């Protein structure tokens, strides 16, 4: 019995999950197998588009990266050439190296206010795609929204973030944005929640720098 192509297997899993979540009904006279195959074609197209956009953003980052990060980017781009590439990247140790996140963060920051919102958005999208559980990439996006679309749009985005992430760092930046947009009471509440969250952690794990910043912000908000 021939082994199934890994890429095909991955895409079939995504297609089955898509069908399960959407509850899509096959078109008239379409068999279940044909329906799965049609969904797989759509999924493959979406993956190809997403991978190409990631590669575009990574190529932008290459120009602003030290040699160490350039090698990591080359490895990621090479892996993304396959349909299931992003899965391999997320499961590999490539992004788990201690300084990889900092290297990417520094490279993305090089594009801050670069004069082209599309390029800036593109590299931030790469940052989010590679580190979806970290707070900083979303703060970068919120900052871009603030500069591009105004403080009210950024405040709305932060409202969504704080409902999704229980992160003192996001709460701190969200509080700053909400305060400047006029929502002082919500800003103070977010700062208090962030302070409580940090203080509940074991002392060795506490982010003392962020805790100090939150304390200063709370003092300022009470004046």
Overview of the structural elements:
There is one protein chain. The chain is an all-alpha fold and 223 residues long. It contains 11 helices and no strands. The protein has helices at residues 6-22, 32-62, 67-80, 85-91, 100-109, 117-130, 136-149, 151-164, 168-180, 184-199, 208-221. Helix 1 (6-22) packs across helix 2, helix 7 runs antiparallel to helix 8 and helix 9 (168-180) packs antiparallel against helix 10. The protein is globular and about 60 Å long. The termini are far apart. The model is unreliable at 1-7 (pLDDT under 50).
Secondary-structure topology with pairs:
Layout: H1 6-22, H2 32-62, H3 67-80, H4 85-91, H5 100-109, H6 117-130, H7 136-149, H8 151-164, H9 168-180, H10 184-199, H11 208-221
Helix pairs in contact: 1-2, 2-3, 2-6, 6-7, 7-8, 8-9, 9-10, 9-11, 10-11
Task: Provide mean pLDDT, rounded.
Answer: 81
User: What structural class results from the helix and strand content?
Assistant: mainly alpha
Please tell me what the overall shape is. globular
Radius of gyration: 21 Å
> How many DSSP H or I helices?
11
| Distance, first to last CA | 74 Å
**What series of H and E elements makes up the topology?**
HHHHHHHHHHH
Strand fraction equals under 5%
Biggest sheet descriptor: none
The total count of strands amounts to: 0
Report the uncertain regions: 1-7
Helix share, percent: over 70%
């Amino acid at each position: 019995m021939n082994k199934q192509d890994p890429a095909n297997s991955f895409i079939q899993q995504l297609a089955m999950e898509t069908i399960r979540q959407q509850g899509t009904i096959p078109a008239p006279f379409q068999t279940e197998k044909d329906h799965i195959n049609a969904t797989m074609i759509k999924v493959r197209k979406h993956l190809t588009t997403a991978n190409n956009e990631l590669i575009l953003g990574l190529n932008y980052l290459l120009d602003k990266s030290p040699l160490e990060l350039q090698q990591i980017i080359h490895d990621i781009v090479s892996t993304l050439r396959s349909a299931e590439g992003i899965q391999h990247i997320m499961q590999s140790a490539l992004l788990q190296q201690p300084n990889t996140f900092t290297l990417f963060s520094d490279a993305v920051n090089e594009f801050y206010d670069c004069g082209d919102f599309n390029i800036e958005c593109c590299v931030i999208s790469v940052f989010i795609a590679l580190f979806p559980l970290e707070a900083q990439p979303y703060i970068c996006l919120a900052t871009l929204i603030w500069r591009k679309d105004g403080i009210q749009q950024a405040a709305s985005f932060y409202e969504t973030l704080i409902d999704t992430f229980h992160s003192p760092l996001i709460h701190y930046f969200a509080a700053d944005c909400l305060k400047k947009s006029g929502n002082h009471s919500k800003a103070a509440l977010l700062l208090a929640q962030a302070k409580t969250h940090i203080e509940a952690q074991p002392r060795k794990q506490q982010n003392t720098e962020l805790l100090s910043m939150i304390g200063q912000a709370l003092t300022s908000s009470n004046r």
